[in-house]
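Final report, Chapter 2: Outcomes

The project's central promise was a pipeline that accepts a single protein chain and returns its three-dimensional structure in a standardized token representation, suitable for archiving and comparison. That pipeline is now operational. To close this chapter, we reproduce one record exactly as it appears in the project archive, with the input sequence first and the structure output second.
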Amino acid sequence: MRVIGVVDLLAGRAVHARGGIREHYVPVRAVGRSVIDGDPLALARAYVDRFGLAELYVADLDAILAGTPGDARTGATAGRFAHETIVHSLATVAPLWLDAASSSPEDARHVLRLGATRVVSALETLGSFGALAAICAAVGGAHVAFSLDLRKGEPVAPRLGIPPDEPAHLLAARAADAGVGAVIVIDLARVGTATGLDFDLIARVRAAAPGPILLAGGGARGLDDLIRLADAGCDGALVASALHDGRIDAADIQRFLHPSGSL
């Protein structure tokens, strides 16, 4: 089981994600005694140095909100261009998974050139599962993660045209068939709320897509939720707010990652 620290980038700052309402996100001020003041590199170093985490997950919210990663590549706005420099720096701190609204092989190649080790192609910005398969064929499925984006349990897929009641676990199965090496389950409405995760859904996703690495995030309350994720078949957890406010501390992480006995 792995624990991955999340860095949400908005206009060049590391921000607190809260319920998926992105216009209300504010900069991360501190993690424990570490002053962050919105500095994404400081946040990444706190994850690695304070908590001993070995991986990062970066969401480029400017690219996601625009839904046009090509604009980000050409530096159409100073903010998006700055994010590429930030990503380069973050990649020197730890291996990272990057969601920058990648929806084509060209996007995916660019993400890997920026230094990411995994390209995240998200349901929210994906145009088709055919495009996802093309990404996997171009860069290798082992380098591609599919983010199963939900809001209150319903798929967030404005470009795919699927009905809102489409079973989420079946979408994960389609992503697995497309060749992805990992699936991420995240409910945007739960992010930063400390209300817990949908463990039943996560177990259904695990059953529907047994092959890929399975990660989940959004709403973790504490160490017990990490244990429940492992029991549901998850290979890892994406965590941010619970680390920022101390609900999960460094000792918890070490007990979880290196238990003396079975959890």
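Archive annotation: Residues 2-257 form a domain with the TIM Barrel fold (CATH 3.20.20.70).
This record, like all others produced under the grant, will remain available to the consortium after the project formally closes.
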